[in-house]
Amino acid sequence: MATDSGGRATFESVDWSSVDGARYRPATRTVGFLAALGVLVTSFAYDYLFAAGPLVADWSPTPLDWLSLVGVATFACYVVVPLARNRQLTRRYWRQLRRDRLALASLGWLTFFVLFALVGPVILGDPETAPMGMGASQGRYGIPIYQPPVGTSVSEYATTVCGGPLSNGKCWGTFLHPFGTTNTGKDVLAFVAQGARIELKLAFVSGMILVPVATVVGSVAAQYGGWVDSVLMRYVDLQQVIPAFFVYLVAQFLYGGSLLLMVAVFGLLNWGGVARLVRSEALKKRETAYVKAAQAAGSGRLAVVRRHLIPNVSNAVVTAITLQIPMLLIVETTLSYLGLGPMQSQSWGYLIETSIHDDNFPTLVWWGVAAPVGFLVATVVSLNLLGDALRDVLDPRTDGHSDGGHR
User: Fold this and answer.
1) Whole-structure pTM over 0.90, yes or no?
2) How far apart (Å, rounded) are the C-alpha atoms in residues 103 and 322?
3) Are 349 and 329 in contact (CB under 8 A)?
4) Torsion angle of alpha carbons 248, 249, 253, 258, nearest 10°?
């Protein structure tokens, strides 16, 4: 290789094909994603066309389950794998993040929430059944309705059956029903676990639809400009004229409510604001030296978008998505409270509604409101706090000097 007197590579020795977007070879993670997608599509076709019973053991996947698996493959290939391969960058991110105690607490809660949503319904079973598989109807005297949470008590006359110890005219909570039971004897902890799984599916699958679409649209609009930018942004304007919330209400009236419908509507029609934020950030990145150098070296527009713009707007995407996902959780809970939810009988909103409208509320069954509201508030706040911290971590301008540790 030809070098100058300082030992640096000369102009002639540079492999300019490495910066030319004409010779595009998919990255390993893209190949892996396409392979995983092929397996999922094949499995879906087999399940839909040929399988007469459950696909695996007792599991009969729904269309939303298949979308969830696609989301898992996307997250693994484009988030987990890059972080695992670039350990130095991952360690730098972690060092910055752990300075913020609120962010660490938020990460801890969200990790617990995900595990609880995945494993909780399996362990706790149906809300009609007590935790650890012990049926509520297997109590010595029948179903314990209005059973208070552990550490609290109600009058022994408030419930026909006390599932916990009786003392001084009080019925005390029991670890058999740690969050108590409803006025029909449903276990509140199991109910919260079922609702958490619904919220997780909604947030995860909607996010996996919303993020790629918004990122690509915003980056392409910023890089191409002109009529491409005008067309894409005018579509975003049109999309935002009619909010996804009202589209969902109309679609539910016409086709019936389902979680898949809600995911499709909010995932496909609620990315306009994120795309605008990405476009704004990409316009700034387009004027940076490394993008100018890539263009001068002959990189095509798509190559610039793929290699330079999309990887450098992650902080804007994280900021936007941590505002969108909490909104989706609140909307789903609100719709279920109003009787318009996609999975009415399993949602947090339904538990809140039935508890509030009980004749004995708030003297009794206040725990049917406190538990889901507590989970919802903790999850929404954690998403916002963690998103704010990740914005600083992923922003190269902060270079690790954010004030997160002082919050």
Assistant:
1) no
2) 13
3) no
4) 50
